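Repro:
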Amino acid sequence: MNDKTVYSMDEMMVIGFDPLPYKMMEQEGEFKATLDFKRWGKKQNLVAYFSVEEIGKIVASTFWNREYLNLKEIPIGSKLIITFSRKGKTGNYLRKLQVLDFEGNIKETYE
């Protein structure tokens, strides 16, 4: 899939994407993932849904002040390395994205 669309909540419901299996990331570190879906949030954020190897389905937000880590331009279905870091007492946050090419090499990095 080469879909760069960031959907609205209403569009997500019409399409039938089910966000219920996706949980907040509890671990810090670097993980291989596939971008499953993305939609606009309510607080100038972009909500991304990932399938993460060895962990399962997770959801994470990124914000306009970090240019959404370029998620607006990354197609759904892309293979990535995503990095989560602890942020005070509020939990983990998506700190870095690395887009992988077809051979698994890092093609682009966004922080």
